Amino acid sequence: MTQILEGEWSRLEQLRERFLAPFGSRTADYWSDERLCELYDATFAQRIAWKWSAVLAELARRGRLPRAESVLDWGCGTAIAAREYCAALGSAGAAMPQRIHLWDRSRAARAFAAKKLHEVAPQASIETELPGPSTTIDLLLVSHVLGELDEQGRNQLLELARRARAVVWVEPGDSSISRSLMELRDQLAPGRSVLGPCTHSATCGLNQPGRERDWCHFFAASAPEVFTRADWREFSRRLKIDLRSVPYAYFALGGGAPVAAQPDTIRILGRPRLEKGHAKIDACDATGVRVLRVLERDAKAIVKGFADPAGLGRTYRITTEKDRVRTIEESQLSE
To answer: What are the Cα distances from residue 150, in Å, to 128, 156, 157, 265?
Structure first.
């Protein structure tokens, strides 16, 4: 983490207050200068990076990480999404994008983002404007914007999402924003392949009547240094942020035909409930979302692993008897 001077903590506190303020009271541009971008990038943006790392790693495990020559990072902030995407490609040994567009309402953020992105993608042509209407968008990256969009802004973003060949959209894991994201997923999914987190391309099971209080969310792992470094402890204390819990929601869409659902394959939502001798899980598949019981005696190692929700980035193949999971094993998905 960059060194934060005593007088700079108040800038981060004010920034957090703006993030948490009701939509109508937020200032249009809270990036006032490069130093504020630097402070944000070293703190708040790192929590977002952990979420993107979890999402992209899951897509890579499934063989569903989109490849792209042209990328648009919309609402880029300090380009955490684009930087994590390039890092994921590097880990997979895949070709880097040739052109990356960075868009944010703040010129200061765009300039800072371009500089940081150039450090990890020096081969790419980096543009700080939206691509023209005739420019191909292979991949649209969207990160933490739903809480700041009015209806016009949302419609403009949806137009770009329909235009892009693939979309990866990550948001905070709170209930209201996650439910909004689920609705957008269903608006954009028809005729396309749903790459994640779902095991299917059917309608979201939590958008069915009777599930209005539920939401699709997961947990990312914090960086190890969060638990060992004094500057992160100070950040957590001053900003009142629990760095142990990093909830997020996301969806990823591809441009091809819908992916066929694999039978008996589920994705676990949220946090399993550990009870004496068993765990209850919210299991999502093409038929919807249902609560299932996994007995410890049937799958001791897996039930033990449920204690760490950040380790649930995988899908599972199961067999069931009523609401009891008889067999369960980790499963990979592919196109």
So the answer is: 22, 10, 11, 37
Q: Is the peptide bond before 197 cis (omega within 30 degrees of 0)?
A: yes
Which three-class secondary structure state does DSSP give residue 283?
strand
Strands 193-196, 166-172: pairing is unpaired
pTM of whole model > 0.70? yes
Q: What is the pLDDT of residues 228-280, one digit of tens each?
A: 999 999 999 999 999 988 999 999 999 887 877 888 999 999 999 999 999 99
Q: What is the CATH number of domain 265-331?
A: 2.40.50
Q: For helices 9-20 and 230-239, what crossing angle results, to 10°?
A: 50
Under CATH, which architecture does the 6-254 domain have? Answer: 3-Layer(aba) Sandwich (3.40)
**Side chain identity at 282, as an amino acid letter?**
D
At residue 321, the 3 state secondary structure works out as strand
The closest alpha carbon to 126, from 71, 88, 56, belongs to 71
Task: Enter the tokens of residue 180.
Answer: 């909004």
Pinpoint the residues of the chain covered by CATH 2.40.50: 265-331
Report the amino acid identity of residue 293.
Answer: R
In the chain, residues under CATH classification 3.40.50.150 are: 6-254
Rounded CA separation 46/39 (Å):
11
